[in-house]
TrEMBL record:
It comes from the Eukaryota. Residues 114-164 form the B box-type domain. Keywords: Metal-binding, Zinc, Zinc-finger. GO terms for molecular function: zinc ion binding. This is Uncharacterized protein. Residues 11-76 form the RING-type domain. Coiled coil: none annotated. CDD domains: Bbox2. SMART domains: RING. It comes from Dreissena polymorpha.
Length: 673
């Protein structure tokens, strides 16, 4: 999708229209004043930090200030100042030495087309004259006389001056004089391409670095066909992929922090329970453990936040690069597009190296706490209340991972206190290896261990339907008869109601979006009975309805379950009435409609930690795995007794499945491998 002109002319530092746009060797562009303030600030910060800045996204090493350059504000790549630029100058003067971005100026010229043709300088001396030219850099209209003076004055002789008729007669940015300046030889125009070294060059480069090269040709000869070729667009697609992978890493790291925060709360509760069973002699040990735990947790989270910060910086760099390349594709000359594409290809290699490095640093992290069982016997000899271990397992954030499922546990959820056989229409995993199940028949919530041991059950005022895990050891439960959603806590081996809020219709399927941090719920609309999907905040505010088409009708006939993608705003809804799975976004944009004859009565639906989608075929007795775009699908499990609900552990490679019919009280636990 083409980048808007507003985005192309907006400085990433001040978020306003460029004022004297200057570009660095990496092609990232900033207002001259913004760049000047940044360089001065960086120099001051480096002095306070003993000449070391936070890690660069390219090498993950602290940036060391040498006084011979500075890190780019976007990509943090080192910008080296030439000796002739450093001599007799201070960092405050460096910003003015970088070349003007003529492409951005041309776009700005189009955006600032004057409505009146009066010469700006002449108006200032109260001698108005009609203007026929426009200075892209000064954003001023000029009469013939002022235009002539503008071109010869030393302060403005390099400005791009164009005819007003060109501005008004064309539908895009004005044509302009190309000024692609060599960063090695200041002031020299880059107009050559060395095939032998795959490098751009100016006249001085050709005389020095490329004097023995046999294939040194003018840019015009190699740039002529680039607009009609697919190379620039392929480069743009790769930049988009780089951006998407960065987003996946950020979301995965945020998800890991949510998990560790929840696990930390759970372990603190366990520590407290152990501590209550012993005497006050262990108060000091508990304090020591808490301090150590907090410090360890802070270090782990700090590392995750550092990684997120690097990826966010990478995203800014990629976004800026995409904007520059889009600008060159849409509005630049062939020469400019070739220069930009050539430079951007090298930047892309750096970005890809960063992604590769960051991906290798991703581990599935968890805490493991082991209670010291000899506390009761050797109180006097104890030196710790327990041990904390951080586990790191290789993981992936790929958008589609082909897995196989293996059943590891099966148990009956009917308890001795139940009046009826349990009917499980929903379930979820809590962050401490426990399962919370919805029992519609007995109007209860039940808390189990993965081995099937009942820990607690909580009676509700009406039959629940579905449940989803919410960060912090909580869960959200739908009560369709009461048209309510109840928030409960599952900490400390008990189920505790926290709050509840009403919905405008009977609510059924529910899922928590880790991307938007909101709930997605299927509801009946009062009056017309139309079933829709709604986005609801954790405070109970109905943010929007997202499953209504342009004709005002719902895209779904009878949705009973809903799932969300952990990496983006995608929502997946199963429609058992039409044997269909619908993909939409949280903004209501239609993504896909999947309908296959072998998938009968799709009900329970869930997404795993990689964004893959799983749907229960209640009529076909199976579970299918789909990609996030709904195009690829394969059989994961078959021969199941009427699978009803499915839920994935947001922190591990496993899922649970419940069934209908004579197996409606059975829970099956699977692991992915």
């Amino acid at each position: 999708m083409p980048t808007s002109n507003v985005q192309m002319i907006t400085c990433t530092m001040c978020q306003e229209t460029y004022k004297r746009p200057k570009y660095l060797p990496c092609l990232h562009t900033f207002c001259e004043s913004c760049l000047e303030r940044y360089i001065v600030k960086i120099a001051d910060i480096c002095t306070k930090l003993d000449n070391k800045l936070p890690a660069s996204i390219f090498d993950n090493k602290p940036y060391i200030w040498t006084g011979e350059g500075f890190p780019c504000p976007v990509c943090r790549g080192h910008v080296h100042m030439r000796n002739d630029q450093l001599k007799g100058t201070s960092p405050q003067q460096w910003a003015a030495m970088f070349p003007m971005n003529q492409l951005v100026l041309s776009i700005m010229g189009y955006e600032a087309i004057p409505t009146e043709n009066a010469c700006t300088p002449c108006q200032k001396i109260e001698d108005p004259k009609p203007a026929d030219h426009w200075c892209l850099e000064c954003s001023e209209a000029l009469c013939p006389s002022c235009s002539a003076h503008h071109r010869v004055l030393k302060a403005t002789d390099t400005h791009a001056v164009v005819k007003l008729s060109e501005l008004k007669n064309q539908k895009g940015p004005v044509s302009h004089v190309e000024v692609c300046t060599c960063h090695v030889h200041g002031g020299k125009v880059v107009d050559l391409y060395c095939v032998d070294h795959n490098q751009l060059a100016c006249e001085e480069c050709a005389k020095n670095s490329h004097k023995d090269c046999e294939h040194l040709i003018p840019i015009e000869k190699v740039a002529g066909e680039i607009r009609n070729s697919a190379e620039a667009h392929k480069l743009l697609d790769k930049l988009r992929e780089c951006n998407e992978e960065s987003e996946c890493i950020i979301l995965d790291r945020n998800r890991t922090m949510d998990k560790l925060n929840s696990r930390k709360s759970v372990f603190i509760q366990r520590i407290k329970k152990v501590r209550d069973e012993i005497n006050k002699v262990l108060d000091e040990l508990e304090t020591i453990f808490h301090d150590d735990f907090d410090a360890t947790h802070a270090n782990v989270v700090g590392d995750l936040e550092d990684q997120i910060g690097r990826c966010q910086l990478l995203q800014k760099a990629v976004d800026s690069s995409m904007g520059i390349l889009n600008a060159a594709i849409e509005h630049g000359t062939d020469n400019e597009l070739f220069v930009v594409a050539h430079s951007m290809e090298k930047e892309l290699h750096k970005y890809e190296e960063v992604i590769e490095k960051e991906t290798k640093r991703i581990f599935e992290m968890d805490y493991e706490f082991n209670v010291n069982y000899e506390i009761e016997h050797i109180l006097l000899s104890l030196d710790e209340i327990g041990s904390l271990k951080i586990t790191k397992l290789p993981t992936t954030v790929s958008p589609f991972v082909k897995k196989h499922a293996k059943i590891v546990e099966r148990f009956d959820a009917t308890s001795p206190m139940d009046e009826r056989c349990a009917e499980l229409t929903g379930g979820t995993f809590l962050p401490d290896d426990r399962l919370m199940l919805v029992d519609t028949a007995n109007e209860k919530l039940k808390l189990f261990t993965p081995e099937g041991d009942l820990l607690c059950e909580f009676e509700l005022s009406s039959a629940p339907w579905d449940i989803t895990c919410v960060p912090g050891g909580m869960a959200a439960v739908t009560l369709p008869v009461e048209k309510k959603i109840m928030m409960v806590s599952g900490l400390n081996d008990c189920i505790t109601p926290i709050e509840q809020f009403s919905t405008t219709g009977a609510c059924y399927g529910i899922a928590y979006s880790y991307h938007a941090k909101e709930l997605v719920v299927t509801c009946d609309t009062p009056g017309d009975g139309m079933t829709v999907v709604k986005v609801i905040s954790l405070s109970g505010e109905e943010v929007r309805t997202i499953s209504v088409g342009e004709d005002g009708k719902s895209l779904i006939s009878r949705p009973s379950y809903v799932a969300t993608n952990p990496f983006n705003a995608d929502v997946y809804v199963s429609d058992d009435c039409n044997n269909t799975v619908i993909g939409i976004t949280m903004n209501g944009e239609f993504r896909f409609r999947h309908n296959e004859m072998y998938l009968r009565l799709p009900v329970g639906i869930a997404a795993d930690n990689h964004g893959c989608v799983y749907v229960c075929g209640n009529g076909s007795g199976d579970i299918y795995q789909m990609s996030r775009d709904g195009q690829r699908i394969r059989l994961l499990c078959d021969g199941l007794p009427h699978p009803r609900a499915i839920a994935f552990d947001p922190y591990a490679e496993r899922f649970l499945v419940t069934s209908d019919g004579s197996y409606k009280s059975t829970v099956q636990l699977y692991t992915l491998f």
